[in-house]
Structures are given as C-alpha cells and as structure tokens.
Amino acid sequence: MENINRLQHFQGLLKDKADLAFLPISADLQYLTAVPRDIPNYGAVMHPGAWLEGAWLTPDHEPILALPRMTAEFGGLADVTGIELRILGDWDDPATMTKNILAGFDLPEKPRIAISDKTEGETVVALHALLPGATFVSATEILRRMRVIKSEDEIAIMRQAGAITESAFAAVCRQLKHGMTELEVVTEVDYQLRKHGSLGPSFTTSLYCSGPHHPLLFGQREATWKRKLEAPVAILFDFGAIYQGLCYDFGRTVFFGEPTAEYERIYSLVMTSQAAGIAALRADELTTAQADAAARQVIVDGGYGEEFRHRLGHAIGMDVHEPPFLTADDHTMLREGMMFTVEPSITQFNTFSARVEDVVVVRQGGGEPLTSGFQEMRVIS
What we know:
Creatine Amidinohydrolase, Chain A, domain 1; 2 domains; about 20% strand; 11 helices; Creatine Amidinohydrolase; 6-stranded mixed β-sheet; alpha+beta
C-alpha cells in the first residue's frame, strides 16, 4: 500500500514538470514500485538491450517495466508483481520495444522527460534519437521531496538495519586480536553482516587505522588491507547493513594496546561532539548547518578543529548518501522524520584517530539515535 501511495504522489508531482518519466533499476525505482535492486558490481554487467531496462510512466499511466530477458530471468524479476512487465528477447530490437511503449503514452511532439540521476548516458542518447524534440529534467530531484522525510515504517526498518549492524559489530569484536590484517577484519565484518541478516554491506566496508607506526592512508585499499594491526593502533570502523532496501551506516573505534591519556581525551571529544550534534537535530528549530556547527565547535574548542576533516553527516535511507547534508554550506531547515548520520571524527595521519557514527532521526526537541551501543572505548589489550 505504501508503494501505491508513493507512486500516486510522484505522479501528482510529475504532472507539472514532465510528460514522461524513466527510472532505471535503482533506489528511485525501488522506492516507488518495490522492484528490488541487486548487490552492485565493481565492473559493468549488462545484457543485450540493457539501455531500456527500467520503468516508464507518465502522470496518468501506470508504470511499464521493460527488461532484457536475461535480466528478467537471471535477475529474478520475471515474476515481479504489481507492475506491467515487458520482456525484450535476446534478438529483439530495444528501440522497437521502446517505441511501442512510448506510443501508448500519447506524448506531445516535444515531451519533457524526467529521468533518474542513475540513468545511463546510452539510454538518454537512444531516447533522444526516438524523441528528437525532447528535453530532460531530473526525476530524482522530484522524488527527493518525498524521500527526504521517512515514514515511521521506514524508521522501524532502519532501526532493524541498525540492530543487525550492531550485532555484526559485537561478533566482530569477539574475533579481534593483535596481528590480524586489515583484510581479515574487513572480511570478518562482511561475513558477520550477512550472517546476522543483511543482504551484504551497504557500501564498501572501510577501516581507517592509525598510530605512530601505522600511518593513516585514505583510499589505498590494496596497500592497507595487507597491513598487520599491531599495538598501539586505533582502528576506525565504517560499515553498515542492508535491510528491506534501506542502508545503514555505522562507525566505532577500537584500540589495540593501552591508550594514552591524550588519546582518551581525543575519544571523549569525538563522543561529546556527536552528542552535541544529535541534540541539535531539532525539527523546525535549527538548520543542517547549525547542527554541523554545534558538533564541530566541541572539537574546535578541544584544539582539534583541523583534524575534523569532513561534514558532520548526510541524509540516508534507500541510498547510503542522500541530500541534504550536515555541513556548513547547507542551510536546509530540519524537519520531523529526516534521517541523518552523525559522524564526527578526529583523524591524524601519523598518530591516533577516533570516529563514531550512528543514524539519527530528526525529532522535536532533538535527534533520536537508532543505535547507541558501544559508547565506551573498546580496548583489546
């Protein structure tokens, strides 16, 4: 029922902005129709006619889901319900099928076409050849008005995604020991996520490890995965579960060895900063920029402002990163039901770092965190 209401709402919003919408298999399409996505691949995987793969709809016509045969059969979508299905044979012409679909929509000579931001360039080129007078707008921008506010049902699903994530982290912590490689830890996280009920990691599981003999390296996975985690080192986790189409994002810090007094202060600053950020997620009172500033000031006052290198957080839901953002140049008014990560950190390249991250719902009077375990520093002596 929720998907039906979403679709009707979207069609109402579409009426003033476009004559046709195309949504490839994506979070946008799953949000509207419950047509599921699969686990993503590093390299492109495609079938003949893949450019037409997705749903076509207008303000007045229900969606038609067009799929190449192999996507339908091997992707498990041949029996999808609640949406009209058109399947392209392996030797059929995708342009002919698309032309037939479009003919049923009674489009004007120069239609406005709303496309998801995930639409492939090949699809746009093919559509332009079929409808040379068309202009294009963003369907994702139209959908964001709907997706930014989460229903209580969505929040309940995300809370369960958080429970899966925390259970996986607890299991990982029981396996941690000095001398493990970063790859062994990452592999354990991904295994425990699936074991505890996640489709897989909601994004590439990351560790940001640093210490005097363990320099912090960003974006060099093939190098860092080989490193052994020998004390003293701070291990910063960043990962999340997938549950019923929603994505979680979670962070905690584990210390191998005996933390110094200065490191305990760093950890405390990060936790205090997060608490300030959560408290600032006050619906109809503050903006996203003000929430960022509230958390950031704690770390600035503690003397580590330059080491807080990123925004406080981002909206989250069916995608891991969604707008708006908790950052200095985003002045969106906070509204009840928005959902953000709150993830302050102090990252230092040649000594110890710390981070924490939870998903938080904007409420009247302050944020509601969906995970709250492991607040005390976990030390593996």
